[in-house]
Specification:
Blueprint lengths: L5 E8 L8 H18 L8 E4 L2 E5 L6 H12 L4 E8 L15 H15 L9 E4 L3 H18 L4 H13 L2 H8 L3 H10 L2 H19 L1
Parallel strand pairs: 4-5
Antiparallel strand pairs: 1-3, 1-4, 2-3
């Protein structure tokens, strides 16, 4: 085991048993997400479906996690995700398949998703849970994402689609053209979909992670 710090992501599709063809949808959407996020150097390996509706990956660095989470939720919509993020060491040489790797980062990620599922973090529902050796960091980042997830749970399908399209180029005019909407509608969808709050959260959380683990 090396002393290098990694971020492991374990996610699953919520209420998947009530959805038709979840595995087919998931694999198709993950293939597109893998292509994009590998190209952007946000992840080290393609997303790997490890069991049923669950998938894993290792990010290129802990600080890239917040931006990755926002884009992943947008790209996989309408599949709602519960995500555990573990930050720590990896016991093995980094090589695929990701589900054969071990170490604290994987244990923390599992702890995170299990606690999010069980609702152990707060008295309100959370969709994202971080875990690491740093208890102070965990308390702060999980509160941030607990509040963040309260907004995420209120975003509509049309708003997610606008967010997904806007994430690709970050330009209102081009997004409006692709969606065949006027610019004011795109702007309104982003605002009502809390995009600016989610975007600022990703920036601030990324900087917080960088300061904590660099």
């Amino acid at each position: 085991m090396t002393d290098e710090i990694y971020a492991v992501l374990i996610a699953d599709v919520m209420a998947s048993s009530a959805r038709k063809n979840v595995r087919v949808q998931l694999e198709k959407k993950l293939a597109a997400a893998s292509e994009k996020h590998l190209k952007q150097k946000l992840i080290r390996f393609p997303y790997t479906v490890t069991a049923g509706d669950e998938f894993q990956t290792i990010t290129t660095g802990p600080a890239s996690v917040p931006a990755l989470l926002l884009d992943l939720r947008a790209m996989l919509h309408p599949l709602p995700l519960r995500i555990g993020v573990g930050i720590g060491e990896v016991a093995d040489r980094l090589q695929p398949p990701v589900n054969r790797l071990t170490g604290p980062a994987f244990q923390f990620a599992r702890w995170g998703i299990d606690n999010a599922k069980a609702g152990r973090l707060f008295k309100f529902e959370t969709l994202t849970a971080f875990a690491s050796h740093n208890e102070r960091f965990d308390q702060t980042i999980n509160l941030i994402y607990g509040l963040h997830d309260t907004l995420v749970s209120q975003i509509t399908a049309k708003q997610w689609e606008t967010i997904r399209q806007f994430q690709d180029q970050q330009a209102l005019e081009q997004t409006a053209k692709r969606l065949k909407l006027d610019i004011s509608t795109v702007s309104r969808n982003l605002k009502r979909g809390y995009y600016w709050q989610l975007s600022e959260t990703a920036k601030a959380a990324g900087a917080f992670i960088e300061r904590t683990f660099s």
